[in-house]
Amino acid sequence: MKKPQTRIKAFLFTAFFLTTIFSFANHSEIKSDSVKSTIISFKIKLKSNEKITIKPSSLKFNKHFAYSFTLDDGYRSAYLTAFPLLNGGKISASNNNEWKIDQGGDGTNSSGLFYSDGLGNKIPFKLGLAINGASLNNSPKRGHLSWAETKEMYNAGWDILNHGFHHATKHGTNYLTEVTENTTSIKQNLGFTISHFVVPGGDGDEKYYLEYEKDALDKGHFSVASYYGKGPVYKVNSKMDLDKLISARTFVQSSKDTTSFKTMDKFLKTIDSIVKQPDPVWFNEFTHGTGNTNLWNLSMRFPDFKYYMTTIANKYGVKGSDSVWMAPWQEVYEYLWLRDRIKVSYEQINNNVTVKIELPKIPENFRHRAISLKVETPSKFETESNSSELKISSDGKTKHSLINIQLK
Ligand SMILES: [Zn+2]
User: Fold this and answer.
1) Does position 4 have pLDDT exceeding 60, yes or no?
2) Which of 149, 230, 134 is nearest to 182 (CA)?
3) Beta strands 245-248 and 223-226, pairing class
4) Number of Cβ atoms within 10 Å of the Cβ of 269
5) Residues 51-79: tens digit of each pLDDT
6) What is the whole-number distance in angstroms between the Cα of residue 145 and the centre of ligand 1?
7) Would you place residue 8 in the very low, low, confident or very high pLDDT band (cuts 50, 70, 90)?
8) Are 355 and 55 a contacting pair, CB within 8 Å?
9) CB burial class (10 A; 0-12, 13-18, 19+) of residue 175?
10) Residue 183 near residue 159 (C-beta atoms within 8 A)
11) What is the distance in A from the centroid of ligand 1 to the CA of 200?
12) In Å, what is the CA distance from 241 to each residue of 107, 298, 332?
């Protein structure tokens, strides 16, 4: 078992935050991935003849704020506490493991934490899991997840990210096989090809993470979360350069203070300041364990985690402004990738509109294929499609501002 040592210090976070939030502009032209494009189309029937405008939404469901949160290392607390808290279910009571560390929670029942799709349907908060295939096992006192637990969370929409096969960082590590063996292990056990990498933290040769970044990108990963890079706050109102993206990783962690939520309030204040930006943003953060003990002092104690996530849900989820899209890294990445490569055109004749969307060739290992369109019209409307390739829903009868398309 390896004990991760890395911490990104608060001042680094502040520096990244200040430098990235206002200056995510200067990017090279995105390369065309379309070898052969496909066109999908559907119709809109308006109540009146007034002019409509339609364009891709900056974020799915017209949200203002995408928040991605990843649990590193595949600790069992993800399944015992975080998953039932967010998805709904019984949170484990205290659960002492092989390391004599309590990875359980408060033993209560959670009804889940939700945002909506903008059309009245609740969606549970989902996280990402950065896992090391070599650590997963089935022993009763284990500190790590089992494959079955991981699969259950994956099936519930949580994304799984590559964190190296052994979480190896020390001198002599074969970074390339760490990347590829984990890809193989995940393919064998979960049945899909993993496509985003999170550099394992720990003691290693100077700048060892550069090796991981290179090897992961060379082996077809679309992005790497590392010590330094773009983000963690991304402005998403214009075209983004997502190609071989290296993203800076910052952590939410409990402090020694177990009597108040002051530490969590500080992190929540940062979120507040990000959400207040006039333009839509994507924010990406990490922690390790979410059980009662602050695992390796790199984690969120369960009471802190519960307070943190519940506060976010109450403020920005369905019980609050409903402005958050609480979705893991891969899901948001894939939405933005597709958003920047579709070509939306439409023709309006009186109250009939024909919408055409030219799709790029979508990489086979994409998991999420969703498009949201921001509609401006004073008129109520209905959508019509006879394509079996799409599932279309809209708020045409109420707010007439959003069309969600799920590609099959
Ligand atoms: Zn790690």
Assistant:
1) no
2) 134
3) parallel
4) 10
5) 999 999 999 999 999 999 999 999 999 99
6) 14
7) very low
8) no
9) buried
10) no
11) 4
12) 44, 31, 14
